[in-house]
Every structure is written in C-alpha cells, then in structure tokens.
C-alpha cells in the first residue's frame, strides 16, 4: 500500500507577515482557494494511496485536523512535541505505518509545495512506486528552469529505466557560478525533498547509519497514545532524538556505498517550494504588466508587483518590482529582489519579543476563532466566532472580567451557578474569578463581541476545568 506522509511542520518565516509561527504558509490559501496542505492531499486523489499520515507540531494540531477534515482526508496526525528535522519525523511515520500494513510504501511530501502539472506528478509517483517495490530508495529531482542558489542539487548517474537514474551525489546549495554550471551541464536536478521507499528499507538504512535516531523513535512510540484525531509520542524520550534530515542521515550515506540503491526520478511539473514572496509571484496568475493583486487594489503605472490587501484598499502609483502585503497588524513593503531577506525582519521581531512574529490578530482555535479588534492599557475587545456545536472550555480568569454581547446566532452560557441562553443583541457580564463557559448549540456560527477589562489580559490567564479538546491544564474541580 502507498501511504502519503505529509510533512506539515515549519514556520514559513520568509512569507511573513501572512505566514507566522502559529499559522505558517502551509495552512494558507496562497495560490488558489485551497490551502497548501489541502492542495498537497488533493493532488493524490487519482493515485492508489491509503490513508495519509500527517506530521505536524503540537501547536498546529487543531489547524491541521480542521483542514484535513474539510478535505475529507483525515488519516493519522502524528504530533511532534519538538522539531527534530525530517529523518526522525519519517521514522515515526514508518513505525506507525507498519502497525497497519506489513510492507507499506511511503510517499514523503512537503505540505507547502506547488505542482502545476498534475499528470506529470502522477506519472513520476507511479514510476517511483515500481522502483521502490524493487528496494530502491527513490527521490524526486526537479528539472531546473534557471540557476538557483537556494536549493540543493542531485547529480544524475547512469539511466536505470526510461524515467529514472542512479544518483552520483547530493550537493549543497551552490554559489551562482556553480549553479549556472550545474544547469548548463544538464546533469543536475534540484533536490525537491520528496521521497518514495518501503518503510522497512528506510528503517533498515536508519539502523545502519543513524541507529541513535531510530532507537529513540522506537522507544518514543512504545507507549503510543491517541488523543482525539492525534497520535502522541512520548515527549521526554523524543526530546533525546538527534536533529537530522533524510538527506544527511540516509540518502547521502547510501549514495556513497558500492551497491548504491538511491534512484532519482526527474520531475518537470511546474514545481515551486514557495520559499519567498518572489517565488509566490512566479506561480501566481499575473496581468499583462506582470502584477498579481489579491484583495481591494487600485494600481496605476505598476509593473512586476505583488499586492495582498484583504483588509483595506491598497493603491499603487508609478512603482515596479515590489512586494506589498497588508494584514490587520502589519504591513510589508519590499523589493522583489530583497524578498528572500524577510526572515531578518522576523528575527528582529522575535528578538524584541513582538507578537507579530508569532500570531495573527485573528487567531484560530479548535472551537472557531477570535479577532483582537481593539485594545488599551486595561481593556481588550475581541470578535469571537464559535462553530456550530462547538464549546469553549469551562474556565475562569484571575485578573480580568468579561462582557459578552451576542451579534448573531445563539449562545448557551454558563456564568457561575447559572446556565441560560443568549440571542442576538443580548449580553452577560462575567466577574473576575467566576467559572464560565460558552457553547454554540445552533446550526449557524455564533458571533459575539467580548470586552475584557482588568489588570492583566494575556491568554495565559486561563484556568481550565473541563475541555472537550484535551487542553485541561488544572486538576482543580469547579465547586
């Protein structure tokens, strides 16, 4: 059975301010209406695959589950308590896959790639399947369109089939002169970071070259726990795991052996890893002047420019080759040429402990979302949306009171010892220290305005007593 393993970790800092640590690019609809994670799963629909395995960070678990559910492709979601790169992540997936299939094939994909030619992608995967069944360790190399210094390269060896080659070597990201030589030689492919192999062959190679990684991963799943849609490994044991990539841990050492089983399938399918705003501009639909506009944009005498402006009107006049991204709490203006350096801005935000590096003003939760629309020294105003049938935790706050006003829908409210319904234009006041809960019993989203007031308004001023999403942080029982 072919099991897709989708790597959905990563922070996507080069697409800030749209991509942030708690809501990175793989969860955004950057190219069309589907998010990049959903698009990755959608392109597998016509391939003979079983249920997918998605690997993500603990902090992204509810976003991943919601997006997979909307795609109808839930599968297993393995939660990494801490990032340890791709070699351990795929080891966990291989060990989990072997629990339901004796000899599964793993198709390892990143959740944030764009592939324009679906047919070419499918043919490459089918070719890879045939080779993997024969014990080959398959990687997919992208036919380069230009010299690129941001990718590693794969040097093709002797032909194995009409659609595959041996691998002579993996090479690091080159300088421009070397990259130009690679492309002109036609012997090199971009390293896509996509792989296909038997789970058993991968684990065997890991045992040979990095037994330290394999043994930690094996121990970390001995007490495998299921939590809602999630598969949890032992966090204390997994924290001992070394950090390493599949390339360094397995593929490169295998390539150096005399009986080299590493095989590359060239892929010419309009691939892009969307690693910067410039690369997103490349794969986006453009007008005759080379512009891409998303949102409410009026442009005059503008060329080669990407504008994202969903919150307000954005206007440009007499500019070219710019990246303009407007979000509710941050605005980026960059030249296309310098867009690779956006990470430097994010690093400075983190250094100064600015929230804009981590979260959006609009924050997603398993029950819905909230938008922090206004704040002051001792108050904060949020627009809260609760999904039909969803319920917030039973909780209390030590430092703030809350006033809820229902705008749309109906709310079932617990306020101290009372429980009652609120309809549109009705409200309730929750004093400091009062145990409370909010539920949407209806069939349409519940919209309300929450006004918080008090000496401390941080999200960590929450004591949870009951929570259907497994987020209880206190053993205190409500009295």
Please characterize this protein's 3D structure.
α3 crosses α9 (about 245-255) and α6 (about 200-210) packs across α7 (about 210-220). The termini are far apart. The protein has helices at about 35-40, 60-70, 85-95, 120-135, 175-185, 200-210, 210-220, 235-240, 245-255, 275-285, 340-350; strands at about 1-5, 55, 75-80, 105-110, 115, 135-140, 155-160, 165-170, 190-200, 225, 230, 260-265, 270, 290-300, 305-315, 320-325, 330-335, 360-365, 370-375, 380-385, 395, 400-410, 410-415, 420, 425-430, 435-440, 445-455, 465. The strands form 6 sheets. A 6-stranded antiparallel β-sheet has the order 18-19-20-27-22-25, with no helix packed on it. The protein has a 5-stranded mixed β-barrel with strand order 6-9-7-8-12, surrounded by 4 helices. The protein has a 4-stranded mixed β-sheet with strand order 14-15-16-17. The protein is an alpha+beta fold. The chain is about 25% helix and about 35% strand. The protein has 3 domains: about 1-270, Spore Coat Polysaccharide Biosynthesis Protein SpsA, Chain A, CATH 3.90.550.10; about 275-355, no CATH class; about 360-465, Sandwich (Jelly Rolls), CATH 2.60.120.
Supply the key terms.
single chain, 479 residues, alpha+beta, Spore Coat Polysaccharide Biosynthesis Protein SpsA, Chain A, Jelly Rolls, 3 domains, six-stranded antiparallel beta sheet, 11 helices, 28 strands, 23% helix, globular, disordered C terminus
List the helices and strands and how they pair.
Layout: E1 2-7, H1 36-42, E2 53-57, H2 61-71, E3 76-80, H3 86-97, E4 105-110, E5 114-115, H4 118-133, E6 137-142, E7 153-161, E8 164-171, H5 176-185, E9 188-198, H6 199-209, H7 211-220, E10 225-227, E11 230-232, H8 235-238, H9 246-255, E12 262-267, E13 271-272, H10 277-283, E14 292-300, E15 306-317, E16 322-327, E17 330-335, H11 342-351, E18 362-365, E19 368-375, E20 379-386, E21 394-396, E22 400-408, E23 411-415, E24 418-422, E25 427-430, E26 436-439, E27 446-454, E28 463-466
Parallel strand pairs: 1-2, 1-4, 2-3, 3-11, 6-12, 14-15, 15-16
Antiparallel strand pairs: 4-9, 5-13, 6-9, 7-8, 7-9, 8-12, 10-11, 16-17, 18-19, 19-20, 20-27, 21-28, 22-25, 22-27, 23-24, 23-26
